[in-house]
Specification:
membrane; mainly alpha; 246 residues; 8 helices; transmembrane helix
Length: 246
């Protein structure tokens, strides 16, 4: 197979943050606004993710819309995993954050032990792709827990939390491009941090002013970000076709 992961450009990071925001607001929209509740929403989204992930891993090359739809669904399911643990199983956000961090390290360790690399530039076997998506799911669950921990339990608020995580991403970028830090390590650190950044932005936009948000609601926020994602993915798909055409 050809590499199944997109090139890491500024567009990659923009769509990633937008997808993580939709993961936060989309889960809230289905669970609260549509009244599915956490269990019902979790079942529906898990089925959709399973179907889309099967579609993704059976492709032999990177297809932008398939990849990014899968990423959005993984983002929503990762959010729901954390929400179910915290709301239904009474797991504290600090314990959830620590637990997902340990699980992610274990996933990376298993991936490296099997493949001897964590590079996303060589996702060209089925096994590597499954390791990749498992790690992605854990980063979303971890990011959701960390974002809620900072904004809600530590009472930093959604805006300050978003700024804090954006600053942390800036530090990672400086380490990579200013001090030539390891490319694989800095990529995964930035990938993890974009999740709580997106979650904080989603809550900031969608939550009511009384709760520290801007009151746009989950419908408007999810719809706006999905529209932007669709536009960017369409652009990248057309650009890719032009690049490979004779």
């Amino acid at each position: 197979m050809l590499n199944k992961v997109p090139e890491v450009t500024i567009w990659f990071w923009i769509i990633k943050v937008l997808a993580t925001t939709v993961g936060e607001t989309g889960a809230d929209f289905m669970s609260v606004t549509l009244g599915f509740g956490l269990p019902g929403t979790s079942v529906v989204m898990a089925v959709l993710l399973t179907a889309m992930l099967a579609f993704q891993v059976t492709r032999r090359r990177y297809v932008p819309w398939i990849y990014w739809v899968t990423t959005v669904l993984v983002s929503i399911v990762g959010t729901l995993i954390t929400d179910n643990m915290v709301d239904n199983l009474d797991v504290t956000l600090s314990v959830a954050t620590a637990g997902f961090a340990v699980a992610l390290v274990a996933a990376f360790a298993a991936w490296y032990a099997s493949e001897r690399t964590l590079s996303i530039h060589t996702i060209h076997t089925r096994r590597r792709e499954l390791f990749y998506w498992a790690a992605i799911l854990l980063t979303f669950a971890l990011g959701t827990a960390a974002g809620d921990l900072a904004a809600e339990r530590l009472a930093l608020g959604y805006g300050p939390s978003a700024l804090m995580f954006a600053a942390a991403i800036g530090v990672v970028a400086l380490a990579r491009y200013g001090f030539r830090a390891n490319a694989i390590l800095t990529f995964w650190l930035a990938y993890i941090l974009t999740r709580p950044l997106g979650a904080s932005l989603g809550d900031l936009l969608s939550q009511a002013p009384a709760d520290g948000g801007m009151g746009l609601g989950t419908v408007a926020t999810s719809g706006l970000f999905l529209a932007v994602i669709a536009g960017l993915v369409s652009y990248l798909t057309l650009a890719r076709r032009e690049a490979v055409s004779p």
